[in-house]
Amino acid sequence: MNTSQPHEQDHDHEHNHQEVPADVALRVKALESLLVAKGLVDSTALDALVDVYENQVGPRNGARVVARAWVDPDYKKRLLADGTVALSELGYSGSQGADIRVVENTAKVHNLVVCTLCSCYPWPVLGLPPVWYKSAPFRSRAVIDPRGVLREMGTELPAEVEVRVWDSTAEQRYLVLPERPANTAHLSEDALAALVTRDAMIGVAKVVVSP
Amino acid sequence: MNGIHDMGGMQDMGAIEFARSEPVFHERWEGRIYAMSYAVQATGKLRLGLRPPIEGIPPGEYLRMSYYERWLTSLTERLLASGLVTRAEIAAGVPQAGSAPHEIALSPAAAVAALFKIPATRREVPAVARFRSGQHVRARNMHPVTHTRLPRYVRGRAGTIERDHGIFVFADTSAYSQGEKPQHLYSVRFSAHELWGDEAATQDSVYLDLYEDYLEPA
User: Fold this and answer.
1) A8: pLDDT confidence band, cut at 50, 70 and 90?
2) What is the ipTM, given to two decimal places?
3) Interface contact B21-A147, CB threshold 8 A
4) For residue A9, is it within any domain?
5) What number of H helices and E strands is found in chain B?
6) B52 occurs within a structural domain
7) Mean pLDDT, chain B, as a whole number?
8) Which of B33, B193, B207 should be substituted to probe chain A, the one whose Cβ sees the most A Cβ atoms within 10 Å?
9) Which helix (H) or strand (E) holds A136?
C-alpha cells in the first residue's frame, strides 16, 4: 500500500542529518549482553518486540479504522464519541493507546497532531512514529505555525479553515479522521483503506485519489 | 524543567526533514535499545521514567543525538537509578564478579503480551473535579526543575476547559516513583491569539491535556 512506498532519496537525506557516533551500536550491543548476563532481558524477547512494530502494528491499522468510519456512519459516530472503545472493536489496543481520541477533519476544520515535549503517538493504530515527527523542527513549529508546517509538507489550507493543533502532553493519544476524497463512492472499504496514509492520520496531509 | 525538550513555539530549528516512508528502525541497534527499554520496563523494576533522564541531557547533546541514542542514555540512567546495574558493569559490559543474576527477564510471549496490555494510568478513585467544561482557566506560571507535562508556551496563558478526561496518575511525581497523586486531567483549548499574538489566525487554537495541578480559575 501507499504508506510503504520506497523513497530512497528521502531515506538517505533523513540519515545524513544525524551524526550518530560509530560507537553507539557497540554500546547498545554491550548493554544487551550485560542485561542478558544479569538476567534482566532475554534476547529472543527483544526479537519478538522488534517484530511487533516492524511487521505487525503500523499505519495499515489506522487506515482500516478510517475506511470503516467512511463507510459505516454508526461506527464513525462511536469512533468520534469514544475512540478507545471503537478501536478495540477492530482489535486495536495496547501501549500508548490506553486512551485514543479521534478528531475529524472537515471542509471547515483541520486537525494536526504533535507532541512538543517528546514523541507521544497512537502506537496501536499508527505504529512507532517517524523520525520527522520526533524532530525539533516539527515539534517546535507545529504549535506556533501549523499552517506554515502544512505548507512546507505540501498542503495549503484556505484562510477560512479553522486549524486545531492537538499537543499530546499527557495520557491521551490522537488520531485524525481525514476527509473522504470526492469521487470515491464506487470504492470498496479495502480500496478506501489503501488510499489512507500515515501522514493524513497525523494531519500533515489530506487523502487524495492517486491519478 | 525548562529544558531543550520543551520546544513548542521555538523558531529557527530548520526545515522539517520529511520522509513519506522510512524503515521503522533505521539501524539494528535502534530496535534493540527500543526493545530493551520496553522489556526491562515491563518487569516493573525500574524506579525512574523514560523521560526525566532524556530531559536531563545537556541541550547541545540533546540536539545532536538521534532519538534512540537518547533512549540509550535514558535506559542506562534508569538501570543505575533502580540499582539493577552498576557503573562499573556498564563500563565493563559484564556483570561484576560474584553478582547473582536478577532472573526477571520476560519470555518473548510475556514481553509481547505486556506490549498489548493496556497500561493502567487511569484511576477510579474519588476526586471532585475542580473545573467543568466551558470554564475559563489559566495555566499556572510555574517552573519546576523536574519532569512536568506543562509546556512553557502555555504557562500564564488563559484557556477554556474543553473536556474532563477523568482521573489519572500524575506524571510529575510518578516518573520518579514519588506517588501517584491521581487527579483530573482536562483537555484545555488555548486560542492561537492568546498564545502567539495578533498575527495568528483568529479561529485557530491549540489543545493540551493538562493535569488539575497545572490550572487555576481565570
Assistant:
1) very low
2) 0.96
3) no
4) no
5) 8, 5
6) yes
7) 95
8) B207
9) helix A136-141
